[in-house]
Amino acid sequence: MSTIPLPTDDEMYQALLRSDSEYDGLFFVAVKTTGIFCRPTCTAKKPLQKNVSFFSNTADAIAAGYRACKRCRPLDVAGMTPAWLDALMEQVDVDPLRRWTNQEIRSLGVDPARVNRWFKANHGLTFLSYLRCRRLAGALAQLSVGDDPTTVAYAAGYESLSGFRDAFQKWFGTTPGQIDNGGAVLTVNRIPTPLGPMIAAADNDHLHLLEFADRRMLETQIKRLSARLKCRFLPGDNRLIEQTAREVTEYFSGSRQDFNVPICLLGTPFQQQIWELLLKIPYGETSSYERLAVAAQNPRAHRAVGRANGDNRLAIIIPCHRVVRSDGQLGGYGGGLRRKEWMLRHEFAVVRGERSNDGN
Ligand SMILES: [Zn+2]
Questions:
Q1: Is the pLDDT assigned to residue 144 strictly greater than 50?
Q2: Which of 59-63, 64-68, 203-207 has the weakest average pLDDT?
Q3: Catalytic residues (predicted)?
Q4: Strand pairing partners for 287?
Q5: Is 264 part of the annotated catalytic residue set?
Q6: Is 133 annotated in the active site?
Q7: In terms of residue numbers, what domain contains 25?
Q8: Residues 81, 167: one domain?
Q9: Is 133 labeled as ligand-binding?
């Protein structure tokens, strides 16, 4: 994992106060008065700014003498579950596809009714819904992402159970009709990145979707994709998702500037035209809505360009983050402004590094 430049202390402190999930995994906050470190999304009482230190990874926080918070469990891959659930959750981790009977749950010394009450109270789901969600959404497909504590923590930030209600609604609450209507199947999986996990969806020929998992736009994009392709989504891995994961990882490490994974630009002719133009913006450079509108031979269409930009379903690969306002302001970004800023800084730094290397 490359060293990630941290945002300013003020920015991180504000994110901490908001419990902003966009920052989860980006930094960890240690509290000098308690000796504990947390994720930014921790539900514990927020510390005073003068009492906090920020770390870009859990290993550094531990090395500085802090211990992991028991509430937000920055080290814990399994997320926040009470101890009496551990035995059951362990089995679920071992075999996520298993279909549990009440008797089997009881055989672990756990009362099924209590399990359901806990899931209902904490996540608004029954245990069976949770399992179904897990099976189908694959939201926990990447529980074990390696021994690197930073990687584990990045994953853990999103793989906690609290993400499940959201995931469930996202994947099923809004598109229940699509589960059994036949049609194409898109394989869906999560790809961990230093800026939080992304959702990727691909068939055997093309990558169709790549977006940060916590974005509201994701839901809309999935609906549109479902409608266009008449497809349903199933969790898992395929060749193209693996290729995407590899290339995305290389992008974040600074060793990749262009993507080779085959992509599908399903959209209106205008959207396709804009997306093609976006693909031509070089790594480490930016363009503006106005310039793109001119390039599309429709100089007055910069608003429509902005919309087509926002409709991009392939974050990073179709580099809509390289479009800024003509006054130099960052402008918007579907994946969150913070990520746009990070990626631009990252690309500038890589390009600068290359230039200085060339100069040597
Ligand atoms: Zn905490």
A1: no
A2: 59-63
A3: 38, 320
A4: 323
A5: no
A6: no
A7: 9-68
A8: yes
A9: no
